[in-house]
Every structure is written in structure tokens, then in C-alpha cells.
Amino acid sequence: MAKVVVGITGNEKEMPAMSGIKYVAVAQDLSEGVKQAGGLPIVIPIGKPELAKDYVDMVDKLILSGGQHVDPRFYGQEKEIDSDDYSLARDQFELALIKEALRQKKPIFAVCRGMQLLNVALGGSLHQSIQGHWQEDVSGTSHSLEIRPNSRVSQLFQAGTQINSLHRQSIKDLAPGLVATAHDPRDGTIEAYESRGQQSILGIQWHPEFLAKNCSHNQKLFDYLVQTL
């Protein structure tokens, strides 16, 4: 049986710093999660939007990975924070990938920034700056989950499950076609959503790839992505 091909959106990283030499970057744990689930990960580098159809044609499912802030122009706002952590080229390309994946009815799994961008693509908006959601250490967890019963997340996680928190923006207005399925009990931040319709969409605010090695529930999330979503 052919493996399920999962496209993972790549970021760009300058190495060494200030060298002008850029590399395509994806957290290894993200591709490892797909491989451990029996899928075949393919990294999709940032490109021109007109390439989106060719890339989506190649894959069975799409992961929108984490990274920079989403430019607020895409949800009708001006920048409210002093930050250079944006990539207009990445936003434009990944929005084109989302549009094409929706057109082809291919499942989308969105992580952190990816979850925020997908919400924006579907008509939602973001809080540009939030406090108390950036843990100091990439490893380990930060807070628990409140989970909506009979949701995709409830099939994989129990209420009270500990997750990590590595984001400085969050969902403000949820897109009309989505339903929130998990929240941060501390302040109600949306931690997961899924589609209300037939399109297979699952968005996760935390980084399951950093927890999957030591947490069977987070690895089951990748199993679900490859085998079911």
C-alpha cells in the first residue's frame, strides 16, 4: 500500500546568522511525527503563490507549520506591535496553499502559526499581542486543556491534559466555518478547532511535535492525521 504523502510548509532560516545564506527549515520532530505514523513527509519551501496548485497536487494532506506572526493586513488591521517577526512572502504562499487544498478537498492540519493563518484565511481574526502564553523552555508543558465533548480532540486527549504554550498571538474571532474544540482554562484562549462542514480541518495552538516523543496522546495526533483526517 502506498504511503500517505503529507506536505509540511517550510520556513526560512538564515544560517549562520547575518550571513545572508538561507535554508529551508522545518522542525525535525514535525516530520518525525508523520513518519512514526506511517506517512511520508515532504517539506514545501516558501515559493510563489502560483506554485500552490502543483504542490497540493503532489500531496494527500497538508500541515501548516509554526513560525512568524501573521501579517494583520490579511484580517483588515494595522500592525499594533513593534515586531519584525513577519514574512509577507510566507503568508501569501501559504494562503495560496490553503485555498488550493480547500479547492481539492484535501485535509489540513494546522499548528500554532498555521492554526492562526488558517483561521484568517477562512474569515477570522487574531489578537496581535497576548501575555502569559510563552513558556521559557521549549521542552515541557505549560497548562492544561478544556476539551469539547464529541470532538476530534476529545478522541485523542483527556480533559486536563498538559500541553506546551509557545505563542504570542492567538485567535480573536473564530472563522464562521470553524468550531472551537479546546480552550486554555486560564483565560479561554482557543487551543483547538475543527471544521463545521465536510472539509477535514484540525487546528492546534500548541506544538504537539515537541511532546510526541514522550507523550502517546500527541503521537496519536499524528497517527490520526495520517490515518484518519
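The record above closes out task 2.4. Task 2.5 opens with a second protein, given below.
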Amino acid sequence: MNISVIIPNYNGEELLRRNLPKVFDELNSYKSGKTEVIIIDDKSSDGSITFLNDFSKTHHDFKLIINEKNIGFAPTANKGVKASSGEIAILLNTDVYPEKDFLTPLLKHFINEKMFAVGCLDRSVENGEVVLRGRGLGEWKRGFLLHQRGEVNKTSTLWVSGGSGAFRKSIWDKLGGFNELYAPFYYEDIDLSYRALKSGYHILFEPKSIVVHEHEKGAIKTKYTPFAIKTIAYRNQFIFAWENATDYSLQFASCFWLPFHLIRALVAFDWAFYLGFFEALILLPKIIKSSFKAQKLFILSDREVIEELA
């Protein structure tokens, strides 16, 4: 089975210097097919390009793609997958590195042709502590999909992270990859996984495939203010609900609870919620178009998808 490791990068020179050699160390031990590494630079302003050009001189099967302008995570990742040649695309963030022998347990599940994606156990370093992540749960409540971290003692999951997950390229292409309406970041991996589940494909969490995630050193928290991050998160929460909720009960709930959410945000002076809502509203024609396209592949209801995780 041929694999492609795809690493989107924005101003990650320090992280690349530390983590990229560890990625190649793991790939060098893989003997069951061809491997390649593709790094897509999203118009970095640090020394990333210089480092990567030097690094490419001493490593085989390494490709560097440079965006002409900063376009965000989803479009950048999509470019990387499109340029890849492997049957399986493994997406890794620059602030992530694999622990020893993470490939074998990750890839064994793809013997099932309906398996779309498998997620890793993420040892996330947060405020000096290690939090185990990688398995996601969610429920529809008051018009939104509320997602949360799941315990890592089960393999069922609602999504596979775009920062540390393996995806079957043929199904990725059929689903259209990450929805670029979510750019610059957040919800694109939840959205893709949810669409895959509703389309009848499988996703899993594999606790034996381990990566370390230096969460607070990534590009998002170094480039964006907390208010901007919060606004984007709210906007994408609306986009997800409007695009993916096809059960009539959820569509009704979205309309019914909207005044409540707006009043609560007003009382709390949560202006990021209002800004996120209006930014999503501007995108509504594109969201509707995207929703109709996605629904052509759906064979399961929202209720059926959520119930399978119970």
C-alpha cells in the first residue's frame, strides 16, 4: 500500500526542523509500499522555505508546493492531497510528530474498502500537561452539533483529525475533500468525517497509532487573536449546521433556537457570536449549494450517524 504524508505549513520553521526528521525516520521503516512526503507552504514569512529547500537536497520522495498567497488550512491540505500519488494520504500538522511504529496499526484498517479514515491517539501537550485526544464525540443540541473529546478506550469516533489522520484518497476525491468554506481553519475535518459517515463510509480511532501534538506551538495561536479564533469557530459552527443537518427535526431546531442564541450572546456581550453569525449568513448561498452537492451521496440520516456512536 503506497502512502503519502502531507504536511501543510505556515511559519513552522522551528517545528519543521524538530519534527520533520522524525516523520522520515518512521517512513524509512515502512516496507509495504512506496512513500512520499508533500509539504504545502501557505505563504510563510519565516525561514520555512529556505529550510525546506535545504532539507529536500538530502531526502528522497520529498515535494514542496508553495502557495502564491495565504489561503488557509482546508485549501492548502486539498492541494496536497490532489498532488499526492499514494492510496492513503496521511495528514500531519507541523506541530505533530509520530511516535515509533505508528504506521502499522494505522494502516491495517484499510483492508476494508469502505474504510475512509483512521485517526491517531494524540498526546496533546497543553499547559505543561499531556491530554489524550483523537477520539471525538458529538450530539445535536439546540440547533448545533456540540462536539467533545471522547475517552480513548473505544475505537468509534465522529471524526478523524485533519492534523493527525489517514484518509483513503479515492473516497476523499469522491467526497470532494475538505470544504473550503471553513477556511482558514476549524471544523473542516469534522465536516468531512460527518459527510463520509452519512455517505455510508467508515471511520475509526486507533489508540495504538500515537503522535505527539505540541498544541500551543501551532500557527493558529501565534497568528490569530483569541477574538478572531472565537469568531471563526462560531461562523464555522453555523456553516456546519446549515450544510449538514438534513433531518427535518434538526432544521426546525436550528430556526427555533436561533433567537435564543442571539439573545444570550447579546446579554453576554459576546460580539464574536454575532460577527460569526453574519459572516456565515453572507456565505449562505454557497452553503446551500455545497449542501445540495453533499446530499447526493448521503444514505444515512443525522440520527442514524449519532446513534451509532452511543
